[in-house]
Amino acid sequence: MTDRELDAAGITDPLLRAAYAHCRRLNSRHGKTYFLATRLLPAAGRPAVHALYGFARWADDLVDEPGAGRTTAGRAAALDALQQCLADGLRGAPTTEPVVRAVAHTAARYGIDHRHFRDFLASMRSDLTVTDYPTYADLWRYMHGSAAVLGLQMLPVLGTVVPQEEAAPHAAALGIAFQLTNFLRDVGEDLDRGRVYLPADLLAAHGVDRGLLRWSRDTGARDPRITAALMAAADLTQGVYREAAPGLALLDPPSRPCIRTAFVLYGAILDAVRDDGYAVLHRRAVVTRRRRAATAAGGLARVAATRLTARFTARRPAVPPGRQPRQVPVPVPVPEEAP
């Protein structure tokens, strides 16, 4: 966390500043796509976003990261300890855990519903024992806690131009779209962890099961049935992006460039999967640096246009009643890409 961001957010306590800086480091290491987009937010909002995503990364690592002697029981105990620590932190009790210190401060500052954290940890806990999902409805219940609630947590930080409950379904859908994108990109890696996140009924509709996926992963051989199933999963994900898209215009204008950039970058992962022939069982699809840089540059242009428009509006004098305003050229914002 830079001093400028912490100063802009009004965070002065040294322990809190160190806690937020720790969360920022977690995001910079593990969430490169969203970390890049977050840099387009106004500086005052970035610490809170890093706290929310830093907590999510930390909990996910407790479940997924390999380690000597890390049994299922050991991971469950670690999640229990984290849940209790978080509950104490959300109640205002002191904690030595920097991530909990930052996320509890963020939750109090923005009035984030504590239920979202409980739902998130419930999904993390299910990863200890659940290894596949029979239907999309089953997967959706998991994703509500693991992804949708992150979008809902973000809304108070980002701000909206409508009541939050109107924007909430789109924010939840965007979280799910991002996670479905990750599931498709990471099919092979997840399979190595013993998990299949693509719904079994979607796979079965194309003649695919876990055994066929394992065979393809182990041998490096391709099968048209697997490609067809992965294409269907990509189509499903695109549909969720369409559900999420109207929510971009419901956010406060200064927050839109960040979320739109994330929207475009995650969509580019789907493009990379397609362009690589849906070979996700054999290699990880990657968005080129050039495309990432171009998308970020577009986001920066939108940030500049938003700030320029805001400054012009703030400086424009009020017009007395009955007098027609003098025509003044208004700065035109850079058009946003279509989803």
Structure description:
The chain is mostly helical. It has 15 helices and no strands. It has helices at residues 3-8, 14-30, 32-38, 46-64, 72-90, 98-110, 114-126, 136-158, 164-185, 187-192, 200-204, 210-219, 224-244, 256-275, 289-315. The radius of gyration is 22 Å and the shape is globular. The two termini are 30 Å apart. The model is unreliable at 318-339 (pLDDT under 50).
Task: Provide a brief overview of the structure.
By secondary structure, the chain is mainly α. The chain has helices at 3-8, 14-30, 32-38, 46-64, 72-90, 98-110, 114-126, 136-158, 164-185, 187-192, 200-204, 210-219, 224-244, 256-275, 289-315. The chain is built from 15 helices and no strands.
What about the largest sheet? Answer: none
Give the averaged pLDDT, no decimals.
86
> Total number of helical segments?
15
Portion of residues within helices: 55-70%
Straight-line N-to-C gap: 30 Å
Can you write the helix and strand succession as a string? HHHHHHHHHHHHHHH
> If you compute it from the alpha carbons, what radius of gyration comes out, rounded to the nearest whole angstrom?
22 Å
Tell me the number of strands. 0
Please indicate the percent range of residues in DSSP E strands (runs of 2 or more). Answer: under 5%
In the predicted model, the low-confidence regions spanning at least 5 consecutive residues are: 318-339
Structural class: mainly alpha
Label the overall shape. Answer: globular
